[in-house]
Design brief:
By secondary structure, the chain is mostly helical. The protein is built from 11 helices and no strands. Keywords: Amino-acid transport, Cell membrane, Membrane, Transmembrane, Transmembrane helix, Transport.
C-alpha cells in the first residue's frame, strides 16, 4: 500500500520534498531577478548590452539543461569558487553543497534565459507613447521604469512568467543526476530498497502536482491583485 510506504519512508520523502522546495523557491527568485536584468538588456539603448543579452539567451536557451548541470558540476567545485556558499549551505541545511548549488546555478542560468524573453516581449507590448509621455512630464529614466514600465509589464507577463516557474519546478528533478537528494532521487532510492517503484513514483507525482498547483494558485492570485491594484501601488 502507498500509505505504508509513505509512513515507512516519511523522513526520506520529507527531506526530498524540502530539497525540491529549496531548489524551486531560490531558483525562482534568482532567475526572476536575473531574467529581468537580461530582458532589460535586450531592450537597452546600449548596443553592447543588447549584444550581451542576445548571446546570453541564445547560449543558455539552446544548451540542454542537463548538459549545463553536468558542465558546472564536473568542471569545478562551485563551493571553492564561491566560499560564501558554504555559509549558505549551513543555513539551508544542504548535505552536498557542490551538487546542490551546481544544479541551482544551472537552473537559474537556463530559466532566466526564457524569463528574459518573456520580459522582452512584455516590454515590446508597452506602447512607446506612454514612455514618451512620462519623459515629457519630467520623469527620469529610472522613474519611468519604476512608475510606468514595470506596472504595465507585470500586467502583461504574469501568465507567461507562471509557465516558466512551473517549468523550473519540474526541471529541478534533473538535479538527481548529480546526486541531489530531491524528490525524483528519493523515488529511485525507495525503489532500490523495496522494488516498489510504482508506489514511490505515485507519492512523488502527487507531491509534484501539489507544488505546481500551489504555484499556479499563488500566481493566479498575484495576477488578480496586480490587475486590480498594480497601477495604484506603483503610482
Amino acid at each position: 500500500m502507498i500509505v505504508d510506504l509513505l509512513i515507512e519512508f516519511r523522513n526520506l520523502i520529507i527531506q526530498g520534498f524540502l530539497t525540491t522546495v529549496k531548489l524551486s523557491l531560490i531558483g525562482i527568485a534568482l532567475s526572476t531577478i536575473w531574467g529581468f536584468i537580461i530582458g532589460f538588456f535586450r531592450n537597452s539603448r546600449s548596443e553592447w548590452l543588447r549584444i550581451f543579452g542576445y548571446y546570453y539567451v541564445e547560449l543558455f536557451r539552446n544548451i540542454p539543461l542537463i548538459v549545463q548541470i553536468f558542465f558546472i558540476y564536473f568542471s569545478f567545485n562551485i563551493v571553492d569558487v564561491f566560499p560564501v556558499l558554504k555559509v549558505v549551505a549551513k543555513v539551508l541545511h544542504v548535505e552536498d553543497p557542490n551538487a546542490f548549488f551546481s544544479a541551482l546555478i544551472a537552473l537559474v542560468l537556463y530559466t532566466s534565459a526564457y524569463i528574459s524573453e518573456v520580459v522582452r516581449s512584455g516590454l515590446n507590448a508597452i506602447p512607446y507613447s506612454q514612455i514618451e509621455a512620462a519623459m515629457s512630464l519630467g520623469f527620469t529614466r529610472l522613474q519611468t521604469i519604476m512608475y510606468v514600465i514595470i506596472p504595465e509589464l507585470f500586467l502583461v507577463i504574469i501568465p507567461a512568467l507562471t509557465n516558466q516557474y512551473l517549468n523550473l519546478i519540474k526541471n529541478s528533478s534533473l538535479a538527481m543526476t548529480i546526486g541531489v537528494a530531491e524528490l525524483t532521487f528519493v523515488t529511485q532510492q525507495i525503489d532500490a530498497e523495496t522494488f516498489r517503484g510504482f508506489e514511490a513514483a505515485t507519492i512523488v507525482t502527487i507531491l509534484y502536482i501539489f507544488l505546481t498547483l500551489t504555484t499556479s494558485l499563488i500566481m493566479s492570485l498575484v495576477n488578480r491583485w496586480v490587475s486590480k491594484n498594480g497601477r495604484r501601488v506603483f503610482a
